[in-house]
Amino acid sequence: MTQPRVPVWVKAPDPASRFAMMHALRQRPEVFLIGDADLAEFQQRRADQRIAPPVVALVVVDSLDATAVQVLRVAAQRGCRRTVLIGNIIDDDALMTAVQLGVSGVLRRADATADRIVYLLRSAAAGNGSLPPDLLGRLLGRLSRMQRYVLTPRDLPHTGLSDRETQVLRLVADGKDTQEIARELCYSERTVKNVLHDITSRLQLRNRSHAVAYALREGLI
């Protein structure tokens, strides 16, 4: 059975890199490109008609600096929940940031052959992740240190949400307001507001609705 072509939205702070990547992918029958002007319409049509697979954002950067992070955030804001990152400099901090921003596949530019890029795009569309072995080892080491020095002392599970935070988010998801949550959990309203503020600040979420959506999407509540 022939696999469906993967819709790909290419972004890069450097216009030359974006042009080169789009030129290379136009030759591949496994994918097709979605332009900036057509992305919103395609996303809406896909949602209405339940078209699969999802759009995959392909972000090409030199290093994961502030500009590149903004590109990743724009991809998420425009509905691209699957992202492949190609870059030159990927240190531990950049790797953690990329994972936190929803990047599922990472590839160094030196290893970015057309076959490898297409493989990562198709893997991302299928909901799978892919990291070079050395980066995967560094990521696991970083997560292990986070568990040892950050999560465990604060009684936080691997999800990054404490039991109290999970309880509050579940009640928000049930449509309860601050006063009702405080009454049900025997907290003060100020405590409930502080819990929600901590969640949105730590996970870089916009508001309580965004926090609930994030938690539901990630299977945390």
Keywords:
single chain; 221 residues; Rossmann fold; Arc Repressor Mutant, subunit A; 2 domains; five-stranded parallel β-sheet
In short:
The protein is an alpha/beta fold. Helices cover 54% and strands 12% of the residues.
Which word captures the global form? Answer: elongated
Low-pLDDT regions = 146-158
The main β sheet shows up as: 5 strands, parallel
CATH architecture of the largest domain: 3-Layer(aba) Sandwich
Query: Number of helix segments?
Result: 10
Which percent range fits the helix content? 40-55%
Q: Helices and strands, in N-to-C order?
A: EHEHEHEHEHHHHHH
Provide the structure class. alpha/beta
Mean pLDDT: 78
- Name of the CATH class of the largest domain: Alpha Beta
- Trace the largest sheet across and list its strands: 2-1-3-4-5
* Count of folded domains: 2
Strand content: 5-15%
For the termini, the CA-CA separation is 37 Å
Care to count the β-strands? Answer: 5
Radius of gyration: 20 Å
Task: Give the secondary structure arrangement, pairings included.
Elements: E1 6-11, H1 15-25, E2 31-33, H2 36-49, E3 56-60, H3 66-77, E4 82-87, H4 92-100, E5 103-108, H5 114-125, H6 133-151, H7 163-173, H8 178-185, H9 189-202, H10 208-217
Parallel strand pairs: 1-2, 1-3, 3-4, 4-5
